[in-house]
Specification:
Strand content: 15-25%
Shape: globular
Structural class: alpha+beta
Helix content: 25-40%
Radius of gyration: 28 Å
Largest sheet: 10 strands, mixed
Number of strands: 31
Distance between the termini: 58 Å
Number of helices: 18
Length: 716
């Protein structure tokens, strides 16, 4: 026990009751995503999008997190988490939480959203609702486009139980042989290489004789109503849909792999079929005897069967955003060119081959550090421009960068190849272990190697998660380093959807640090100290904890202490315990945590001075900002790391200080905008639940995303 004040005893700070379970906290985050679909203030087609995002998030949660817990149970590992739950208890709590949530999600789509989109002329129909012409069209479509692909697989002693791929959608069909009066069970995989939603041509977009905006059916509905073609001579008795999820998180023993790229390629191939089955989604009418067959053959516990109404795999609802109804979507957003880079893009084409016309981004960086905020400010006009110009500038001698995730058709990768063709020294660390992007990264790594670039596949035993770029340029009789350090990936597509920050600078001390970091990544350097950068797993944890202790010391000496930190997740027990100590000392702490938060805010005598909020809205909050008041000598940092054990101890991360006074002011204003949001903001309660903020009567609505878009437009 510790003493908070005279006569008051409080539990020790490492008591499990003061920690929220990581998995359950993530589920609460996904619930907040789902709430955007339920919220009538969200444009109608965007509500379908949030249903899809919720389902997509849940797929990955099962493939990675739930699968890991199942593996622990099967290996009889009973180590409890800081909140005191064993793996088995966590699995039970996950199912207890999820079953009513996904049941409500499907019911909401079937009963409310389908009705609302129908009012706007968008009809997802059942077969019995079709007219004669529509059925005739679908019969032809089935015969020409679908039937040749389908392969019904019988399930009986003569036909072994079929292998089923991860995330596959399937029909279980019961047929009767009229000659023998025997029943048989068969499985048909719904082809993933065909459109999930089959749209009628314009002349058939009619419902009850009236022309509508869009009309169609699901692919499985079409197949289910044409089963006689697949089982001629048999009587179709019933058919039911199910969907399978497998473990997709594979371990690679790097110390035993002679070729990491080849080892990961081999493991990727196992994902589809060999991962342990961990979830079975079924139609609510699915017969119990069939459930027993599937659970037995697939080895799925009944706790991970989810009976659901209507269509399965709501992730595919992304399709409806393609319908041309801009009034039912968010207003389109085009990122603006950052103020200080406008001259570049107004005077010349930044991708021009003519070196005389090419503008000089390097001179702008030399004038003053640049802080870019995506997606409000354009990725292509800033980050891509820097890399393209570096590739073509004859004074640039070398380019080094880390690639964790990049887009499928990346201008950045093409620019790096061009740099190599221009005889520059180019070194790229491609993180092959970036989950679910392994295949994409392998493809790019091979192309980069073929173009003559030095490619490194990461550091043994660590994931390289840094977002760093180093350009070495010859200027007169010296070499100058230009740097890009960010919070997000070098990905032009996600840069339009994720909020991220990046610093462009040519400060000597940060440049020297980044050179040391790249030597660590590419060679055998064991650099243990850095001038300005906070580097994981070397200095980041100690420095961050030191900053928190410094605020505690200020409070102990009667000075104010204050911390504002924005990140994706807060999980690390040591950091959480230290934040509790800071709260007890009087440090005022505001945490802006989008996703997982294992800390309990507002607990008397433990975390009275800690407030936690989450923002979930149009853009995915991805930036990390750390602000320490330091008795008025404020320090502020941005970078790639959350306060998670994996980021602090098992990944290569880079956090940079922001030292330009104007940029410090800009970041402080940004944090204030987040903290004052009353539209997309949620306040975390001590029990781990969240309450959404709403404007008070007469108070204007303040959406951080809307405010920042307007601020960006004011630059134009």
């Amino acid at each position: 026990m510790t003493v908070a004040e005279e006569g008051t005893q409080v539990p020790a700070l490492d008591n499990p009751q003061h920690y929220i379970n990581r998995e359950l906290s993530w589920l609460k985050f996904n619930d907040r995503v789902l709430q955007e679909a339920y919220d009538s203030r969200t444009p109608l087609l965007e509500r379908l999008k949030f249903l899809a995002i919720f389902s997509s998030n849940l797929d990955e949660f099962f493939m990675v997190r739930v699968s890991g817990l199942i593996e622990q149970v099967q290996a009889h590992l009973n180590k409890v988490t800081p909140d005191g739950l064993s793996p088995q208890q966590q699995l039970q709590e996950i199912h207890k939480h999820l079953l009513p949530v996904v049941t409500q999600q499907h019911r909401f789509f079937n009963t409310e959203l389908k009705s609302l989109i129908q009012q706007e002329g968008i009809y997802l129909l059942k077969y019995e609702q079709l007219n004669t012409d529509q059925k005739s069209y679908l019969e032809q479509f089935f015969e020409s486009r679908v039937y040749p692909i389908l392969t019904p697989l019988g399930i009986d002693p003569a036909h072994p139980f079929p292998r089923m791929s991860n995330l596959s959608l399937n029909l279980a069909v019961k047929v009767l042989n009229p000659d023998t009066n025997k029943q048989h069970l068969a499985r048909i995989k719904i082809p993933a290489n065909l459109p999930r939603f089959i749209s009628f041509p314009d002349d058939l977009k009619t419902v009850n004789g009236e022309t509508v905006l869009w009309a169609g059916i699901t692919l499985e509905e079409l197949i289910a109503n044409n089963l006689e073609s697949l089982f001629p001579g048999m009587t179709i008795q019933s058919r039911h849909l199910f969907r399978l999820t497998r473990d997709a998180d594979f371990p690679v023993r790097e110390d035993e792999a002679d070729d990491l790229l080849q080892a990961i390629q081999t493991e990727i191939g196992k994902r589809r079929f060999l991962g342990v089955a961990i979830r079975l989604e079924i139609e609510s009418s699915f017969p119990e005897d069939w459930q027993n067959i599937l659970t037995h053959e697939l080895g799925i516990a009944k706790d991970f069967i989810y009976p659901l109404e209507g269509i399965l795999n709501l992730k595919d609802l992304f399709f409806f955003l393609s319908i041309p109804r801009p009034d039912l979507k968010d207003k389109p957003w085009t990122p603006v060119i950052p103020e200080r880079l406008k001259a570049i893009h107004q005077t010349s084409n930044p991708n021009s081959e003519n070196l005389q016309e090419r503008p000089d981004i390097f001179s702008i960086i030399r004038e003053q550090d640049l802080l870019i905020h995506h997606p409000y400010e354009a990725f292509d006009a800033s980050v891509e421009t820097l890399i393209v110009q570096a590739a073509r500038d004859p004074q640039v001698q070398a380019i080094k960068m880390t690639l964790y995730r990049t887009s499928g058709d990346s201008p950045i990768v093409r620019a790096l190849m061009e740099a190599a063709e221009n005889a520059k020294q180019v070194a790229v660390l491609v993180e092959l272990k970036a989950r679910f992007d392994e295949a994409n990264n392998i493809e790019w790594a091979q192309k980069l190697e073929q173009s003559g670039i030095h490619v490194i596949y990461g550091v043994l035993g660590l994931k390289t998660h840094t977002k760093t770029l180093l350009v070495v340029r010859e200027e007169g009789d010296q070499l100058r380093r230009y740097l890009h350090i960010g919070t997000g990936n070098y990905n032009s597509k996600t840069a339009k959807l994720y909020t991220d920050l990046c610093l462009m600078t040519c400060r000597d001390d940060i440049g020297a640090d980044l050179s040391d970091l790249f030597n660590y990544l590419t060679g055998f350097s064991r650099q243990k100290s850095y001038r300005k950068l906070l580097i994981a797993p070397v200095t980041l944890r100690d420095r961050m904890m030191g900053f928190i202790r410094r605020e505690i010391e200020h409070c102990h000496h009667g000075r104010p202490g204050k911390i504002v930190a924005k990140m994706n997740s807060l999980v690390d027990p040591s950091i959480i315990q230290l934040l509790y100590e800071a709260s007890q000392a009087g440090v005022q702490i505001d945490l802006i945590i989008r996703g997982i938060c294992c800390l309990q805010p507002g607990v008397p005598h433990i975390s009275d001075n800690i407030r936690v909020m989450s923002i979930v809205g149009r853009f995915l909050e991805h930036s990390r900002i750390f602000h320490f008041y330091n008795d008025g000598q404020e320090e502020i940092y941005i970078g790639s790391a959350d306060w998670m054990t994996r980021n602090l101890d098992r990944r290569v991360e880079a956090i940079t200080p922001i030292e330009d006074p104007a940029l410090i002011h800009k970041l402080k204003d940004l944090l204030h905008i987040f903290l004052s949001d009353n539209r997309q903001a949620w306040d975390m309660q001590p029990d781990g639940n969240y309450i959404q903020r709403h404007p008070a009567e007469g108070e204007p609505e303040r959406s951080a995303h809307q405010i920042l878009m307007q601020q960006a437009l004011n630059q134009v």
